[in-house]
Amino acid sequence: MVEEQTASMEDYLEAILLLTRKSGAARVTSISDFLGVTKPSVSYALKKLSKRGLVVHEGYGDVSLTSAGRKLAEKVLEKHQLLVVLLVDILGVGEETAKRDACRMEHSLSDETKSKLEGLAEFILASPGANKRLEKLRYYQENLDRYHEDLERKTRSVES
């Protein structure tokens, strides 16, 4: 059984998966550039991941995921993509902010919560009138400060 990974280790696995999909291979330099970390940090992480049976890396060659590493990387990527959809398409968060936030949140999201969030996203996005409801949500979010100011003003006038 594969032991639980840290958020950092999951980031490495996800990066290797994405780089391999994009260019056919992942190497220490490309992983370093992708994650914005030093090459020695990548080498250290690859040794740890290799000992855990998640990657194969020989010397200065390509880095590849084992089947266990690929499964874990795909699981992390699925969580990331789901969170981006929820944040951008439903909540209206800017794409760059959503990607950063999703990267932080994906590591602590349980399988149960992921499943429930997938159902919620499908329900919201596929239901009749979804666009209109999402427009109303955006309007509400954009006017929330005004709503709170009005509520505060009304509360003060009742208390007076």
Tell me about this structure.
The chain is mostly helical. It folds into two domains: 66 residues, Winged helix-like DNA-binding domain superfamily/Winged helix DNA-binding domain (Arc Repressor Mutant, subunit A); 82 residues, Iron dependent repressor, metal binding and dimerisation domain (Diphtheria Toxin Repressor, domain 2, Orthogonal Bundle), CATH 1.10.60.10. It is built from eight helices and two strands. The protein has a two-stranded antiparallel ribbon. β1 and β2 form a beta hairpin. The radius of gyration is 21 Å and the shape is elongated. 21% of the residues are buried. The mean pLDDT is 91.
Give the helix/strand layout.
Layout: H1 7-23, H2 28-35, H3 39-51, E1 55-57, E2 63-65, H4 67-90, H5 95-105, H6 111-126, H7 130-142, H8 144-159
Keywords:
160 residues; mainly alpha; Arc Repressor Mutant, subunit A; Diphtheria Toxin Repressor, domain 2; two-stranded antiparallel sheet; 74% helix; elongated
Please, how many helices? 8
Distance between the amino and carboxyl termini: 66 Å
Tally of separate domains? 2
User: What's the Cα radius of gyration?
Assistant: 21 Å
Short description:
Helix content is 74%, strand content 4%.
